[in-house]
Sequence to fold (490 residues):
Amino acid sequence: MDRIILRWARGLVVALCGAMVVAMCLTAIAQDMRQVTEPRIPESCVQLPAQLRATNHMLNATDEGKLDTERIQSALDTCKQGMAVELKPSSGNNAFLSGPLEMRAGVTLLVDEGVTLFGSRDAKLYEMKGEGMTPGLCGTIAADAPTVFPPPQRTPRVRGGCRPLISVMNVSNAGIMGNGVIDGRGYAKILGKDYSWWEMARRAEPKNQRYYTPRMILASHADGLVLYRITLHNSTNYHVSVNGTNGFTAWDVHLLTPTTRGQDARNTDGIDPGHSTNITIAHSWIDSGDDNIAIKTGVSHMSVLDNHFYSGHGMSIGSETYDGQSFLLVDGLTEDHTTSGIRIKSNVTRGGPVHDLTYRNICMRDVANPIAISPYYTNQTTEGFVDPVYAGNRIPDYKAITIRNVVDTTPGDVLIAGLDDAHRTEVTLDGVRVEGIKPEQVHGRFATVTVGAEGTNLNFSKTEIKVVAAKGAGGEEEAYSCVGRFVPMQ
Fold:
């Protein structure tokens, strides 16, 4: 059905655009279909003065019980749509401390410059409540402990766990804005425990155990959600997860985790959309130690424009692709010391159709895997180059992927692979260079690579990849330049 819809869409484009400009029109639909412009900060319905004082970006232990949750939530509940609840500094005070907050339709949470909204360390505040929920899970590791990946069939998932610090559920046109900071304090010891949120996550890793921790911002059915100019630090888990949403904008977001180098943060993804459409992430700075952006299953029509990535796993799709990802445009990206650059990851336990993706005008340096298109995902930071031979019938199928004007200024390994001959990966490379790469660093099979007019320096002689030249290819044009593109994190 997915391919039928794609053929219908292409036919419609031909009819509307004419044969001479079909290529340009197809590029145009491979992105957010909204006309997205820079957001604006609304007027405030109320200004809440800070009552706590952070020193060196840390709260005093004596302030741990002085919660601002109730007064912030009350203000969100009563604010008029189209206006903002403003958190402002006052008399030298610069901090708020909160448990879970719930956004309301049309209301913006505005964090002023110089103000930090800290997440509480009390796991009990985040407990999911209601019929059928198991109490006491938040801040703990589950008893069931699979020892292999992918995990074997588990017993039914226990209901319960942690609410997010900020939830945006079934409300439209909410916003989280301002030049201030939201700090989840994943580094801090959970009250009553001998471990932090991040230490708990790392303890669960060897046996692939389930563990329960809050996300910073969790949105579902949140059409029109906007993040603007906000700084996000030290989430206990994913920073931003958006699901079931039509229209999500993240613009000039600054995300740094961990803020103290040397701390060990696990599963602190930057921005992860899933089962959503019409998404724009623009002019943002993401240093997360995990996926900078990870596009989960069921996403279509997404634009990633003029962003900077630092430590993390790069521009990722997957690992779940069973409902498909399609019509993605990544344009103007800089990746500095990410483990991967362009990464599509899945396997036969979670794969599906991924198609009509355009990556262009991308600069990388010190990236271990500048291109990794893989049906071999094994839950590792970077992709292996051979099929792990898992059992499953959810087959990754990657088609209509264009990579143009992409330069890695340092050598790294490239993987372009399909699962088998019936599911060949199809990629076009045009103006793609990995400086210093050797033939033995290019890996792949069951893939067809079309080389465009500007060519590539990738040598596929040691792979089983089929290489063809695009019609009209062969002339050399000026190489894409990354001079001046690498700048410090902001």
